Amino acid sequence: MDPSEEIMVDEDGILLSPHGEESDNEMAGFEPASPIPDNVESIIALRRRDLKREEKWWHMLQEWEVDSPPPSKMKSRARKGVPKCLRGQVWPRLALNTGGSPRPTRYSSLVMQDTPFEDQIRKDIGRTFPRHVWFKHLDGKDGAGQAALLRVLRAFAVMDPDVGYTQGMGFVTGQFLLHMSEENAFLLLVQLSERYGMADMWRAGFPRLMEDMWVFEKLLHDMDPELAVHLRAAGMEPALYCVEWFMTLFSAVLPTKCVCRVWDMLFCEGCDKAIFRTSLALLVNRRDELLTLNLDGLMQNMKKARMFRPILVDPDEFVAMILETPLRTAHVVETRELYAKLQPKPGMCPW
């Protein structure tokens, strides 16, 4: 790269001027910044709002004692969004409150050991956030983010060879690294795997992925039978689009700001509510268009979330849309129990 060439990035580090090559991530060029206010007064008002919100979060974190449940206001404030500057503290603390004892780990030791998954990790590194300046491969060298990502994924694979590594883990870990140190990103990855059930999403055979796709399609049918039947009749089964959604917790397909807002709720309320509710909200809010498409149109518009772009521009509106989507935890539990009872084969229709 020419040293004189400017690298333009947005506030989240996404390259605004790609350097020649095209990314295979169709959402790469869609990383909307926060809605731009019309005048200086509006900008000042928004910044004051953000500062006031950050101050409230600082006070709440200071009052949150170690080994105690989250403050009563945590859920409502997490839904409004954890300040970007505090996610590196808030996400790990919420994860620690999910119960159980953390596995003893020594990142500095694990990161130096070999794993049979390393070749595959190295192959996938360049495909993880290829348009983020920190992860960008420039001048024939790995970016600092790529090197950090390799170390964290290697350490995890050494610690838990049963889960090892699968490609979706790179996007999740990469997002962690944008908010916290390598060691903290590693520890949060361990907690996500062990305490939020993602180990069964990522391990060989993907047992949780199979279950979650069936459960999701059943929940969609319960909420919107016409849409669910149309997608199934067209041949658009969850395996054709939900794999990337669920295995990366949307980090490979949604804009960074939207992903972080979903994760604010995920770490506070659990994977099931956040992931199923977000998935249902995406489809139900574009149902009219979806009902007009055949399989080719559905494949083209859904797999990389292209058709959802109009509802992803403003993260606040996107979260409001998710929260307006009715889904009871009891309903998810009942549907999981039905899956356990029926033990359906992969791809079997849930109705």
Task: Describe this entry's structure for a reader.
The chain is built from 18 helices and no strands. It is an all-alpha fold and 351 residues long. The longest helix is centred in the N-terminal third of the chain and has 24 residues. The chain is globular, with a radius of gyration of 20 Å.
Write the layout of secondary structure elements.
Layout lengths: L39 H24 L10 H7 L6 H10 L10 H4 L7 H8 L18 H16 L8 H10 L4 H14 L3 H4 L4 H17 L1 H10 L7 H6 L8 H14 L1 H14 L2 H4 L4 H8 L12 H9 L5 H14 L9
Helix pairs in contact: 2-13, 3-8, 3-13, 5-6, 6-7, 6-8, 7-8, 10-11, 10-18, 13-14, 13-17
Q: What Rg is obtained from the alpha carbons, in whole angstroms?
A: 20 Å
What's the tally of helices?
Answer: 18
Question: What is the general shape?
Answer: globular
Strand content: under 5%
Catalogue the unreliable spans. Answer: 18-29
Helix content range: 40-55%
Task: Give the oligomeric state of the chains in this entry, treating copies of one chain as homo and distinct chains as hetero.
Answer: single chain
Find the structural class using helix and strand composition.
Answer: mainly alpha
Distance between the termini: 55 Å
> Which series of helices and strands comes N to C?
HHHHHHHHHHHHHHHHHH
Number of strands: 0
Mean pLDDT: 86
Major sheet details: none
